[in-house]
Design goal:
Radius of gyration: 13 Å
Strand order of the largest sheet: 1-4-3-2
Structural class: alpha+beta
Strand content: 15-25%
Helix content: 25-40%
Number of domains: 1
Length: 93
């Protein structure tokens, strides 16, 4: 067991619905992993996209940030339209 250097990819995005947000997440993970979006598992196996979209749309605070695991990477989404992926495992799993 060892720690790996993080490989963080940050994508600035804007979305008008939870569907748009889900597409941006899948695109960001696809870019980070080099895998086709169609080769990734369904996003809903990792997070409820509608609930995530509702949280982001309804958040009064711009500091809201949600992190979750998807397709072997840590995905971080914040209220300001930033989707960041960390495909280098930065901690033990």
């Amino acid at each position: 067991m060892s720690r790996h250097e993080p490989e963080i990819t940050v994508s600035e995005a804007s979305w008008g619905s939870s569907g748009d947000l889900c597409v941006k997440i899948v695109e960001a993970v696809s870019d980070a992993t080099g895998r086709s979006p169609t080769d990734l598992p369904p996003l809903q196996h990792s997070i409820d996209g509608d609930a995530l979209g509702a949280l982001m749309a309804g958040a009064a605070s711009s500091s809201l940030q949600i992190e979750f695991n998807y397709a072997g990477v840590v995905v971080s989404v914040d209220r300001n339209g930033v989707v960041a992926t960390d495909s280098g495992i930065g901690w033990f799993r």
